[in-house]
Amino acid sequence: MPDVELVLGGSVFATGKEGDYIRGVLAQCRNSEKIRQVGHIPESELPLQYSAADVAVFPSHTGFGLPTLEAMACGTPTIAGRSLDAVVLEGATILVEPGDVVELATAITKVLSDDGLRRDLSQTGIGTVKRFSWERMADKLISVYRNVGAPRAKEQRRCF
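The structure corresponding to this sequence follows.
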């Protein structure tokens, strides 16, 4: 895809062995001039970066997280690592097995080459993100705290 530029963000590119390793691998890639490593992106610039992207990719082993939701809120089609918590995004993002580079490459190519899919993921993602407001998450957390701290009818124990 000659018109595609890969923009890599995140603190892993800043310093350390991981950053050195990734930079070395990227330098050996064909079309390495089409790969930009931007490192840490300030929070104030994230909406602009996500909105400018044709697809945002988060192939994490640890779940979908806030960056995935931020990209979806900007209407950016997303690809996320398949995990137990990522199931809630089914249909709003393409889920891939973390570490499966063939599946990831296939998903990226599919999103970049299919305008209808990009449009569907964008619209579905925006709708899905509405379920994740700070107020709703705070209410759920408070509910968990109340339930954990509530004494059970038949089983009241003293911890001291």
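The chain is about 45% helix and 10% strand.
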